[in-house]
Amino acid sequence: MANFEGPADTPSSAPGTGTLRIALHFLRRPQRAFEALGSGEALVGGLWVYGLGVSAAALFYSRLPPGFPQGGEMVPASVHGFGFWLGVGLWGLVLTAGSIFLLWGLLRAFRRPTGFSPLFHLGLWLHLFYLLLFLPLEVAVRLRSEALYRVSELGMSLWATGIAILGVRAISGLSLPKAFLAFVICSLPVAGFLFFAYARGWVSEDAMKVLLFL
Fold it and tell me: Which candidate, 28, 33, 31, places its Cα nearest to that of 18?
């Protein structure tokens, strides 16, 4: 079984080389990427990916043309500025950390104790798919193709969810069905906390809708 505490850090030939290598592994050889989780290199790269994802989301959604896409849009993205979407992204980080903490505890209940770091790094790196999503979405906006927009969202969401479940299985050694169950169970309390945060006035109604959708 792979050592998910992470390999010892080794000097890279250039800044960012390790981050690029892990990113390519997530896209082409996920198992190799999972083996790097828990290392300092994976943490730094994951934070970079998350930061870029939040920035890209804020920039993209604040520039969406009015009325696009039509139907099913929970919040009119273009009526909010960059600051709103940046705040949504930061709240997303809090919720990600919370869901990972719940997952860590659940794995201990399943008698599959593992380190917190590999799971947290996995949560950060999953935003790589969120970041890549904006490439086809930008094309869809320019072509005014709602079909491409919807298909891109669905396809990337399924891809990211699949990688998340495979990552949980690789880190914990759970069977695939149990890894899927753990992933689903940990999502429910996070949604409950979000409703609580809204009731307390910590997040706006629009922000809550977006975070639930994401």
Answer: 33
